[in-house]
Specification:
Length: 113
């Protein structure tokens, strides 16, 4: 799938944005993860030579558990806690959130004349 995105890229595109590659390989019960930096080297032609230089950590994952757990142990591990059906609400006091303590307005002094 990732190769489909790189189809049609020219060395100019490589210089502008593609700077490293991540390889994930499944091999003999292991999952190998490798990271490579793209190095564009001089060549005798107009198109530069593309080399991959290994960088960063290399990870090897191995499959250690190859058998199922006993049914009673699997049921205990997958058990969901029972809920009472009540939803927990945030403790926000609703009485005082919309009121402001402002005195009464004196409309008798408003310019009437």
């Amino acid at each position: 799938m990732a190769m489909g995105h790189a189809h049609g890229l020219t060395p100019r595109h490589l210089q502008q944005g593609l700077d490293h590659v991540i390889f994930v390989t499944a091999l003999e019960g292991k999952l190998l993860l490798r990271q490579y930096r793209i190095a564009l080297k001089m060549s005798g032609t107009r198109v530069p030579r593309v080399e991959l230089a290994e960088m960063g950590p290399s990870l090897d994952f191995s499959l250690r558990r190859v058998r199922e757990a006993p049914p009673d142990l699997a049921a205990e591990a997958l058990r969901q806690p029972k809920t009472t059906g009540k939803k927990v609400r945030a403790r926000i006091p609703t009485r005082h959130t919309s009121r402001a303590s402002v005195g009464l307005d004196d409309w008798s002094a408003v310019g009437t004349g």
